[in-house]
Amino acid sequence: MTVQVVLVHGIRTSATMWRAQVAHLRDRGNPVTAVDLPGHGTRRGEDFTLDEAFATIDRAVQDAATRGPVLLVGHSMGGLLCIDYVGREEPPPVAAFVAASCTSIPRGVGLAAYRFLARRFDSLPDRGLGLTNRVLDRTLPPETRPDFGAGGYAFDAQDTALASLSVLDLLAALRRIDVPLWFVNGQWDQLRVNERLFVSIAKDAELIVVPRTTHLVTAMRPRVFNALLDVALTTVETSTC
Length: 241
Description:
It is built from ten helices and six strands. It is an alpha/beta fold. The protein is globular, with a radius of gyration of 17 Å.
């Protein structure tokens, strides 16, 4: 059976951030679903809740699993949610998992500082959009630059979503994950702070650090990230033959 792929975006952005990956996977012949989490993308205006975020991921995974083994891919906040989801005591039907830019425990001083900065940007007249666009213009290649904000930015959901992450017990979830797992980080990613801890706890995890790359590894180095997806897909294909 053909491997199915489910993609879960990070905070503020939407399913459009995965356009380069969606095109690559479809060319490869792998069906793909890129979800919008509550309060994001096509669902802006909805309240963000953890229950609905997990339900969104689960609906996509359960549906995909009816057609073949599932590779789950999450970035940033989406990756943190997927760690908790894949590491449930009753594991979902996920055959392999790629966790990008999410090796940090969202608690304590780090989370408080992130929320403080996010609120300061949000207080600007344009909610920080001008600065965001300047940074993206300078760091993302032309082929993916339009994708990150094409679905709009979830300014209203951001603080609620960040605050909700503090209840996740990621270390317990990582100990329960028993499917192939790849952590993919950019060399300059600020969320690498617990990278070694995550790798030491997860039983079947591999760490891949992409040189000269920021937190936005999927968009900044799309060809490299797509090649890593090919590795994960080939692993699943080989194991299910």
